[in-house]
Structure formats: structure tokens, C-alpha cells
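Handout, section 4.2: multi-component inputs.
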Amino acid sequence: MATALSRRTVLAAGAAALPLFHVRTAAAAPREIKFWHAMSGVNGERLEEMTRQFNASQTEYSVTPIFKGTYDELINATVAAYRTRTQPQLVQIYERGFMTMLLSGAVVPVQELVAAHGHNINWADFIKPIAGYYTHKGKLAAMPFNSSTPILFYNKAHFAKAGFDKPAETWAALDEQLRKVKDAGGPGSIMAGDYHWSWFENYSAINDYQYATKNNGFEGLDTEFTYNRTPVVQQVGRMKRWLDDGLLQISGAGVSPTAVFTSGRSATFIASTASHSAVMAAGGLEWGAVPLPYEEGRTPRNSVIGGAVLWALRGHGQAENAGTAAFLAFSAKPETQVWWHKATGYVPATNAAYELAKREGWYKQAPTQEIAIQQLMRGEPTANSLGYRFGNFTQTMLAQREEAERSFAGQKTPQQAMDDAVSRGNEILRRFERLNAGRY
Amino acid sequence: MIERSPWLDRTCHAILIIAAVLTCIPLYYAVVAGSLTTEAAQKVPLPLVPGGAFLENADAVWNRIGFGRLLMNSLIVALGIAAGKLAISLLSAFAITYFRFRFRGAAFWLIFLSLMLPVEVRIVPTFEAMTDVLMPLRILVQWSGISWLVEAMTGWRLEISANWSLLNSYSGLIFPLMASATATFLFRQFFLTIPDELCDAARIDGASPLRFFWSILLPLSRPNLAALGIIFFLFGWNQYLWPLLFTTEPTMTTVVVGIKQLVPHGDSIPAWNLTMNAAVLAMLPPVAVVLLLQRWFVKGLIESGK
Amino acid sequence: MSETAIPTLPPPRRALWPAFLRKGKAKRRSVQGIKASGFEGQLLPLLLLTPQLLILLLFFFIPAVRGLAQAFLLQDPFGQEVHFVGLENIMALLRSAEYHESLRLSVLFTIATTVLTFSVALVLAFATDRVTRGRTTYRAVLLIPYAIAPAVAGFVWAFLFNPLVGPAATFLHSLGIAWDPNRNGDDAMLLVILTASWKHLCYNYIFLVAALAAVPRSVIEAAAVDGAGPLRRFAWITFPMIAPTVFFLIIMNTVYGLFETFAIIDATTQGGPAAATSILVYKVYVDGFINLDLGSSAAQSVLLMIFAVCLTVIQFRLIERRISYEVSQ
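Output:
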């Protein structure tokens, strides 16, 4: 026995000595909660400030924010960490990763977690299209963190020159206006990098067009895309015409569409409401903002959200989970929400926070910041406007963009392009269904 | 120079100057953008001359992401990768060019094969390998039946219970990136051009293989060592994905990850001036290495061919 | 094997002829990548190889095999559900029109970057070797841009050629060229070829400079005495002498084009427009890393690896046998 023991000891000792420089952080007095995020630049600073506020508000836990690259890099880091049991307590995952995370078996639904540790959150108070996007089986699976929705920014000077004081409400009227702006010597409009989100997905929600069967995927994994049979096809055609006529410009890499807009080289800019911070940072621009346009004859509905949520990962002890729950509860407080809303331009997630921001007079100071919330709260969400729930959603979206671009390049008609996008998308959905059958 | 040919020399100078200007454009733009205020950086297109905010930006960058610590990490990692790659490749190239042994061809092609696989496929498995280095050994002991044999014969249970993880260590950042077919291949190419007479002479003198390697091959390899040293140092310095994924402590990450942290997220305030400023600051150590290793490009080391 | 040879200066006239024209004249030839004059022993070479092979085994081969096994599986990223699907992932690719197109683009891209990078680097290396004044400065200035973070370099090139704001694009427009990589796939391809070549230029340049530094001056001087001009000397003497490095660079450029360019493409075109720059390795990246479709990504890697190995073996067969590794005969 003695030999076996010593042999084990030798192996273990050798292993301990082998790593060249092993840095270990000593266990600090407050329990550490690791929070992996994808917020770089100024938003990253704001996020860090939020964790500092939480850390200062109590003494038991300390949240450490750790930057893990882009959303894509972060989800890969999460996968790698989970498979090696080195995962953090909290991760920020973008909305398109919802189904992957939900069915991963790696997460604890936040509503369960927060309730289990005795924090009171009024779950019914979350703004509907936000809660709807992330609620599964009646419970919020992940905590809304940075939510946004697209609105339409416009350059007041270019519109005034053509004799308009603001953009029209419908697509057809906007089309005419933009042609006149162009005739008056104005520029075309710049297309956001994530145009699929505003021009196809939000377009379908606002106009109440079906995007996919089974309530856009909410009712089952056997959902199938149907947008090739809706006016999304005409929308692709409209984009192609606008591009051909110089009404629409693609920024491509090397310059951000926001910078093209803020430098006055674009008539309108359909983009996330979070672009406010960038638009305001550029001086000397006369700009305004309005809700997204809709199709003539339709009653505009609520728009859908984008952004990211916080997921609580499995594999941590009770004490740590309590800290995670405490931070989640802190992030949902109206005061935190309003602070975050003002600091970053993302929308507040709850009605209480919205009311608080209103009471504080924020929208008198920044009236265009209210557009997004009003647009999200417009009417009762329908089956077509509550949100999208597709597995492998990024992959279907990239296939759709590729086909749309074939149409922009004149290689396919809009109908053909969207037919192909739908059939490629459905194949991708079937792969997800096959892998996750019975788990949703 | 051997003879004068002013026309050719002038052409050469002209070509080099044009090339130098063209290759330096990105660098110049980074300097310009890094010296603007955030507001000035929003102009499209960017101004063509530098602004006056370089030092303020540098100060902001330094404090924002703990730049000093990241620079040190990058330096250790890049030096480790470069030195490690050179060392193991020199030895293996020496083995496959100067020795006739079984598996020689197989060894070369095995090493070569490591160039042929995109990183994406092996990210997660490599991460797993790094957090549990002894896993293969455990499996080997299990599969080979050694543990069973030992137990049956002596009644002792052999267990490898050590958990050796390289996560958040410099070794974890260095080792997975050290495997290099590039250098082995280049040294092979170079060793093959070295006159056989040098080896013959060494053998006549009774020098051992390692002696020959150390006092003849190594000094002759100086220009190639310098070239590879520069390339590998920059390779290690500019690594992004591995350090990002392979560290979970912010203090263990590298400067390029730090730069990425300054890239404006989505629609937030596009403070590209800070990103570019950080990129310029992060270039200083690599530039020092380039200038230092330059001196090894001495001409005509092999003068005494047959 | 003669062991009496003592290093002496080469007879000048023979040096005029490039090594590969003197087939059969050499007494001893390095065949199959091994020195004619080497050392005995079986154990020492294995020991010398051990560090390299051990690192490769732990951090390359084991992870690679585990990664590639995914090609025959359908698995969710978190690894809780695994289905064995045999060749289904691979067959799906072989049937896919997008995959065929991607293969065609990859071949085009790889050949273009290899040729462009190498030829420009060769001219620069020759010029650097030729000039006497300012050689160190030129070398430094041509190497330093390689140190800039790739993400930043990619961004700046994309900016320069951006059809809306880029100075280079404005210049092209003023020449009447309708440059628009955002809508025109061919323009986009040209842009990624240029950017990728720029990125790899320093790499080619530095090794060529190192190789030129190793060419014995006595040989060149002997040729000069015989009256060969600088360009002729380069073509007939120096170039064959650096052929081993040239071969190395051709292989490495191929590998670079096939495997290491996804970051450049991601920074400049993201594979677009309409997948016009979505070469094989970029598809592997998008499907594996962005879409988390491990099965397809691994299947693509298997095919890419087979393709690359075949290509390399052909290159070794075709080119290497024409190289003489004897420098100074």
C-alpha cells in the first residue's frame, strides 16, 4: 500500500510542478461570481460600472466581468468551458442563440433560480415582446439584459431640402420621399449591417405577416419558414430597386453604417435604437427619429427585439447560485434598468422601469429614446409579432442573407431567392429538430 | 557591390520606396486615427494628418484595460512560443535530415500534417486537452491493461489522479501554439543545402552529432533563425482566438484581446481612436524585436563551400 | 563515400551553371530529403524528435482526431446528444452546389495569392539584396507593418477600398472603374486577394531575404568575374541556389491560402456579397464557429485536409525532385 501511495504522490507532485507559471487568484472574502460578456468599447465600460454598483450594494458577493470577445466567440467559449467544467456562473448570449442555450441542458432557467433564492421580481411586469421572446413554458428562461429594436433615424437637413419635415409612415410614401430627396441632391440611405433584422424580421412582425408555421416556432420544433409566400419577397425586390436607383447604399467593411449616417452622407438609417449613443456622439448633425414604416393598409403592430440575455449556467454550488440570483435580481430593478437605459441606449425591460424613466423626465430630455419602447408596446403582440423561435437561427439567417444578396446582385429574382432561402432554412431547421426531438 | 550598375540600383531604390510606402499605409492610418479625439474620429473619411490627442488617448487606453500587465503577458507568451517553436523544430529538422532511421519519412509527414487542419475543428478538443493534459495518459493506462496487470499481480491499484490543467497559465497559452511544421520544414530545406563536406569534416574530427549541431549548424542558421524568430514572435503576439478562449482570468489575457475590448460594440459610441491608439502602442515591442533580430541577417555565412 | 574532401573554394567556371542543369555530374546527391553525409544511430534521432512529437500528439493529433470524428456525427455543441450519421455530412457537401462553388473560389483564390505574394516579395528581396545604402532601413520598414494587429490591418484595407468613403476606391472611380466590392462579387474577390497577399508579403519577403543572405558571396563574385550581369546572375545562379526556400514558400503560401485566410475574409467581406468570397476555409469557420454546426464543419475539414494533402504531395513530387540542394558545387 505504501508504494502505491507514494507513487500517486509522486505523480501528483510532478504534475503540480510542471506548469511553468501557474497564476491562481486567492479566494477573496466576498464570493466571486464570474460574468462572461461580449460588450466591448464604451458599452463594456458601462457594464463594468454596473457590476461595481452591485458589488458596492452588498458585501457577500463580488461579480467579476470578463470580456470574451464577440457574441460568436463568447458562445464558443461557453461551450468549451462547459465541456471542461470551467464555466462561469453567468454568460451573455445573443438572441439568436436562444434555442441552443435553452435545450443545451447546461442552464438553469433564471426565473426558477431567482425564485429559489427568495428574490422578488414582478415577472408579469416585463414588456411583452421582451418577455415573450425569452419565456418558455410560462417562465423566463434567461434574464433580458441588453434589448433593442430598430427605429428609423433621418437627416433633417436632407429632408428639409426636399421639402419634408420628417419621413412618411408607409413604405410606399417613404419610397416617393426618398426619390425626391435624391432629386434634390441628397444622398441615398445607408443599410445597417444587420439589415435582415429590420427589413425582413421586424417588417414581418410590424405588418403581421407570418414568418414561419407553428407561431414562428413557438409551438414546436417542426416549424417551417413561410416568408417566401408573404410580402417579404416584395421587400427584397424593393431593396434591389433602391440599390439600383441609388436610394440605398451598402456600407461594407471599413466604415460603419452609423458613421456614414452621422457624417451626413445618408438620408435615413434604419437601425437599432442603441445607435442613439453613436448618433449623439457625432456633433453637428441635425437628425430626428421615427418608428419604422409599415405597408399601406396594414395596422402596424409591435416590433421585435434583438440583443442579448443573461443565462445562469449549471454546475455551481448553492452559495454561488445565490450570488448569481442576487445579481440577476439587481439587474432587473427599475433603478438599475433606468440607469442602463440612459447609459447605453438599450430599452428598459420592465414597465416599472419605463414609468420611472418617464417620471424622471428622461424623455423630455431625449424624446427619440422613447420611440423604441412605444413601438415595442404598440398593441397586443400577435402570433406573428411576439418573436422568433428557431433552432440554428444564425445559420438560417445567414442562408437567407446570402440568397437575398444574390437577388440584389441580379443573379436571382426576389421570388427565386426567397424560395431558395426558405428551402435551405427548412433543411437547417430539420437538422435541429432531429437532434433535439422531444426536448422542447 | 561587385560591379556598378547605377540604373539598376536606382530602380531598386524606387521599387523599395514605393513598396515601403504602400505597406505602411495601414500603419499610418492607425497612427492618424489613434491621435484624434473621439469626436474627430467620427468624420468620414478620416482626416489625412494626425490630430493632437495621441497622448491623452494612450493614457485612456493604458488605464482602461490594464495595458501594462497585458503587454507583459503578450511578451512572455510571444517569446515563449517563438523560442519553443525554434528549439523543437531545430532538433526535429536535424533528426530528419542528418539521420537515416526507421520512421524518418513518417515523422516528417506527421509533422507536416499539422499544417493541414483549420483551427475551428479543434478549438473545443484542444481546450479539453489543455484543461486535462494527462487525459491521454489515463486512457492509455486503462486501455493497455497496465493498471489491471499491476493490480492483479501486486494487489495495488494504480491511479493517475492528478488533475493537471494549463488553464490560465502561460504554459497553457504557449504549448498548444508551439507545435510547428513551418519551422521544421524550413530548417529541413536549409540543412539540405549545407555542404556535405562540413559534416564529413566534423566526423573526421570526431565530433559528436550534437557537437556538430551546436557549433556548426546552429551558427550557420542565423539568418533563418532571425527570420523565423521574427515571424513566430509576431505570430504569437498577434494571436487572438487562443488567448481569448484559453484564459478565464482577465489578468492572464494578452494585448490583442485587450485591443478587441476597445473595439466599439455594435451601436455604442464608435471610439475607434482608442482602438487604433492601442494598436499602435501594442506594436512597440514587436518593432523592437524586428530591429533587434535584423542584425542577424548577416550575408555570406557559408563562405567555405567546396 | 569519400571522406577526404576538405572545404575549398569552388572552381569559378562551374558555378556559372545552375545546379539543376548539371544532372548526374554531382558525385553525391541528397535524395529524399536526407543528407548524403549524416550520422549513424536510431535512438538519438527519435530523442531529438520527441519534444516536437509529444507537443503535436497532445495538442494537435488527439484534439484533431476528436474534432474530425464529428464529421460522422450529428451532435449539439454542448455534447449531450450524439447521433452517428456515417457519411451523411460528407455526402450532403458533395451534393451541395454552394460547396462546389466554394471549392472553385478556393482554387482561384489560393493560386492568385500564392503567385502574387511570391512574385512581389521576390522583386523586393532582390532589390533589398542589391542595394547597399539603406538596406537595413528598407528591411525594417518593410517588416514593421507585419506587426500591426490583423484586425486593425484588415479594417484599414477595407476602409481604403470602401466604395463609399475609401481613397483608393475614389481613385478607381475617377479612372472610370465602377469599383463596388459590396455588390460585385468579382471586385470583392479581388479585394480579398489583395488584402491576403499584402498580409503574407512580409512572410515571403523575410525568408527570401534570409535565403539570399545565405548565398555564398564567392559564387556570385566568380560569376561576376566571368562577366554575367546582375539580372542574369540572379536568374541563373542565385535563384537556383535559393530554390529550397522558394519551394518552402510555395508550399507555405498554398497552406496559407487554404487554411489561414478566414480572419482576413471576415474582416473585409465576410464571405460576401452573395457568397462570392466564401472560400472553403471561410465556410468551415462560419459553419463551425458561427453556426455551431460541428458535423458539417468537421466534414468540410476532412475534405479540405484530403484536398490539401493531395495538393502538397503533388507539389513535392513535381517540384522537389527538380531542386538541387547542393549549394556550392
